[in-house]
Structures are given as structure tokens and as C-alpha cells.
Amino acid sequence: MENDPLESIASNRYTIAGVPEIFSVIQSLSSFRKWKGLPSGICFYGWSQYSRNIQLHGFAGACATLGIPFYVIYKERAKDILSCLKNVHNLIVITYIQFLPELESFIKRAKCHIVLMWQYYDDTPDPLLATPIGSKEKEILKGFRKDIHLVLSELSLEGNQRFMSGYVRDFGIPVMTFPWAVNIDRHFPVCAAIDKDVFFIGTYCEKAARIEEYFGKVLRRYAHTVIGPDWSRSTLRWMEDSIMQADEFHTRAPLLYSSHTVSLNIHLPFEASGYSCNERVFNAIACGGFEVCDNAGRVKDFFDETELVTGSSPEEYFERVSYFIENPEKRTAYMVKALKKIYRHHTYHHRLADLLHQFFTGKPLSEFCRVMMN
């Protein structure tokens, strides 16, 4: 590892995170202890998706720390796997609106409590990427209302108020802001010599225009490693057209991030408007990367200017990447502060504690998971 302070932080990350303390709050709840004493657990049912799978790995580790069974059931392989839960009851099921009808018999038999992954309700910031739910989805919500406990949203509270108010207004379902986080068991810096100047992992096509604007000059000038699908469609033809799966991410990402001087990050236009930010904001820092991010407003809810470097325009972005490539020793202060912030507030152990505290008491533990409700 290039900087001893990072090694020290990584080796003490569980203490910095305060995992025993935050989980002792959950374990002190009589309602939690009663639930945990049943043949209970948490189950995710949905698609196999890259970022979501990395998140699920983090949840699995956090649940293991609390002694909670955690099940991941992908829709593509659900037929036989649901049968293995025949003796499990009082499950908290994390899923999507459209899957509720096919889970109906299981939900009733297993006495499930539903937590929905968010879908836009009142409006959408980008109709090409996502449309608000329609009348069919609203009928499903109506039919399952008594089983639905919460909606999880990646948006800020202000974003939820703009795009998700209908869940509360029409059905009385609270909406919790639930940001991305890191897997404290697997996301940490590693000892590595610097191999190249810049690193990026992500899909090209979703953010093609912004990638070309912000990354083009950087990638043409500096030695780089880029991993992700659809890069053959870009003007940067030499990119690697592959992407790591969740297991591989945990194995390779710490070394990749730690062995590059700068880790690039870019957001979709609607994310850049300020209501959300991507998982890379957290993962890049936790895995030992020095992140330079576009100036997405939401990142300021998590990091200040002494922790995360941002660029407000392609020109400013290039200048800041270049500055830290040419002056790598200037990175250390940012990296130390950002890594401590990650472990203190933004692990999936913290997110699980917020989710469970909301579930059993009606309020979250932290300011980062604020809830919109009646």
C-alpha cells in the first residue's frame, strides 16, 4: 500500500465503523429479538444485476454479523430455490412491485413483510431510462398494501418528495432514502505499486455523451485501465469490453483501484442534477482509489471538498485529474479523510442497521437514511 495511513485505517476499519455499537442498538430491541428468535430471515427476490449483486454481497456479510439468515433468489432461477424456504417464516422480502403477484402464495404462507425496491411514482427525471409506475402497478400496491412495510429509494429526501410522494399520499407507505454503501469485509485498500495513471469500471452506453466529454482527453493522454461493456461503441476503440461479476469485483477491484493514481467517476445526467449518486462514489474510495468525480450535487451530502475532488466541467475535470497524476503525494490527505468517512457512515452494516431500526421502531438510526412518511 502506498500510504501507511490507509493501511492503518483499513486494518482498523471495524473499530472505525463501530459495528458492535450500532448492532447493539438493534439487538437491544425486544421486537427484533422476538423476530430473530423465529425461523426468520431476509430475502432478496429479483433480477441479477451488476451493482445490485455487489450490494447484496454487502448485505449478506452484514446479516451474517447479526446472525440473520440472508437469502438471494434470482427470478431467473426461482422455481426450485423458493422451495428451500418452506420452513422459514416471518421473512423480510426485498423485491419489486411487478414480482408481488408471482410471490403471492409464498408471501401469505411465509408471513412475509415486504420491502420494495424503488420505482418512480409521480414523475421521472429521464423517461428513456425509467417511467413512473402505471395503473397496473398501483393495483398491485393496493392488493398487497397490508404486507408492504417500506419502499427503499436511492434518491435524497428532496428527490423522494418530488418523484416518490405517491407511495405515501396514495397508500401510506413510507419511503426511505437508502444510499449505496461498501462491503466492509471486502472493500478496502491493498498494498500495491502504482501500475497506471487512471482507472474506470463501468458501462459506456448509458453515459456515452458525458463519458466522451469528461474522460476523452484524460484517456487519450494518460495510461489507463478501463473495464466495462459497450466500450467498442465509443470513439476510444482500444477499451476492454468486459465487466467483472460481483465475486470477481470483490477479488480484483481493491487491487485495481489501489494500483492506479486516479479513479474516474461520472454520473448520468439525472444523477448529476443532484438527487442521486452512483455506487462508484463509495466503492472507489473504499477499495483504495483516489477518486475524481464529476460535480454531481448529491455527493456533497456525503463528502466535502477536503475528502472528494470534483470537476464542474470537462475542462476543470481534466485539470484536476492531471494535477493529481503529476502530484500524487497531494492525494493522501483526501484519501485518509474520505476512507474514514466511508467506514464511519457508509458500510452495509450501517445500512442494515438503519433498515432494521426503521422496520422495528418506525425510524432510522442515521441522518443518511431519512424517511418520507405521513
Tell me what you see in this structure:
The chain is α/β, with parallel strands linked by helices. The chain has two domains: 38-183 and 347-372, Rossmann fold; 196-345, Glycogen Phosphorylase B (Rossmann fold, 3-Layer(aba) Sandwich). Helices cover 43% and strands 15% of the residues. The chain contains 17 helices and twelve strands. Strands 2-1-3-4-5-6-12 form a seven-stranded mixed β-sheet, sandwiched between helices. The protein has a five-stranded parallel β-sheet with strand order 8-7-9-10-11, sandwiched between helices. Helix 1 (4-11) runs parallel beside helix 16 (332-345), helix 5 (50-66) packs across helix 12 (246-258) and helix 11 runs parallel beside helix 15 (314-326). The mean pLDDT is 92.
Topology record:
Layout: H1 4-11, H2 13-17, H3 19-27, H4 30-36, E1 41-46, H5 50-66, E2 70-74, H6 78-81, E3 91-95, H7 104-109, E4 113-117, H8 135-144, E5 148-153, H9 157-163, H10 165-171, E6 175-177, E7 196-201, H11 208-221, E8 224-227, H12 246-258, E9 260-265, H13 269-275, H14 280-286, E10 291-294, E11 309-311, H15 314-326, H16 332-345, H17 348-361, E12 371-372
Parallel strand pairs: 1-2, 1-3, 3-4, 4-5, 5-6, 7-8, 7-9, 9-10, 10-11
Antiparallel strand pairs: 6-12
List keywords for this structure.
single chain; alpha/beta; Rossmann fold; seven-stranded mixed beta sheet; five-stranded parallel beta sheet; globular
